[in-house]
């Protein structure tokens, strides 16, 4: 029994040693990459999420073939903007199909109803800002939903100049009824991305949202040149 255990332990040690040798070059690369990102971003601590994004940026391009339709050109910023616009159009088409049987007519209608339900009787301004709309556009959507008896407005107890919104029983019923279709749309929009790719995409989109949202809230009247000067 002793000899058997000794041989088993020796074999395990040998396998562990071989595994370490086999992956040593990868470990060296990771250490080098970590040194690189720390030197580039020396002003702030580096999180694991930052490091993962750095690795994606460095190595993902090597996986793309010249035949790939998503291969970055010399102007990656233009390609990103174009692809984001394409994704919006794809999503808009799927959502239109999902809402065919609903009194909720558009993605904007769905977004406003969901915001009022989620944030518990917000002001009109809060709902409009949550949906990233200009005031005039947002007011037209709210007016349409009130006329359809999906929302109702009432005076704010603290600020009589402001109006708050609440979802009506009909609005809540229509919203809940649309959830199943919208979940199907979400699945289609995610395509065949695996779990890790979905998390990566969510992380990047959320990072972009947190960059752009303060611009929308505080500087949307500023010129493009002013935005570039202030945020870059």
Keywords for this entry:
mainly alpha; WH_DNA-bd_sf; 2 strands; disordered N terminus; 232 residues; two-stranded antiparallel ribbon; Arc Repressor Mutant, subunit A; WH-like_DNA-bd_sf; MarR family transcriptional regulator
Written overview of the protein:
The structure is a single chain. The protein is 71% helix and 4% strand. The chain is mainly alpha-helical. It has a domain at 89-189: Winged helix-like DNA-binding domain superfamily/Winged helix DNA-binding domain (Arc Repressor Mutant, subunit A), CATH 1.10.10.10. The longest helix has 39 residues, at 2-40. It is globular. The termini are far apart. Mean pLDDT is 84; it is low at 1-8.
SSE arrangement:
Blueprint: H1 2-40, H2 48-63, H3 76-98, H4 107-118, H5 124-130, H6 135-147, E1 151-155, E2 163-167, H7 169-189, H8 195-219, H9 224-231
Antiparallel strand pairs: 1-2
Describe, in short, the structure shown.
The protein is mainly alpha-helical and 232 residues long. It has a domain of 101 residues: Arc Repressor Mutant, subunit A (Orthogonal Bundle). Helix content is 71%, strand content 4%.
């Amino acid at each position: 029994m002793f000899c058997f255990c000794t041989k088993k332990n020796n074999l395990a040690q040998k396998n562990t040693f071989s595994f370490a040798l086999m992956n040593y070059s990868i470990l060296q690369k990771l250490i080098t990459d970590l040194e690189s990102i720390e030197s580039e971003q020396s002003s702030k601590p580096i999180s694991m999420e930052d490091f993962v994004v750095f690795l994606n940026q460095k190595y993902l391009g090597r996986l793309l073939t010249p035949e790939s339709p998503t291969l970055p050109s010399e102007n990656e910023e233009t390609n990103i903007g174009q692809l984001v616009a394409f994704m919006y159009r794809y999503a808009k088409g799927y959502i239109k199909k999902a809402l065919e049987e609903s009194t909720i007519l558009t993605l904007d209608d769905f977004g406003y109803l969901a915001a009022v339900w989620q944030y518990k009787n917000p002001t009109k301004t809060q709902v409009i800002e949550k949906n990233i709309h200009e005031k005039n556009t947002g007011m037209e959507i709210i007016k349409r939903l009130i006329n359809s008896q999906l929302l109702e407005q009432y005076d704010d107890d603290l600020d009589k100049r402001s109006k708050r919104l609440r979802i009506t029983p009909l609005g809540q019923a229509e919203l809940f009824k649309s959830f199943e279709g919208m979940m199907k749309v979400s699945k289609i929009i995610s395509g065949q991305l695996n779990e890790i790719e979905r998390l990566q995409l969510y992380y990047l989109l959320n990072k972009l949202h947190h960059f752009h949202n303060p611009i929308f809230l505080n500087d949307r009247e500023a010129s493009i040149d002013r935005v570039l000067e202030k945020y870059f």
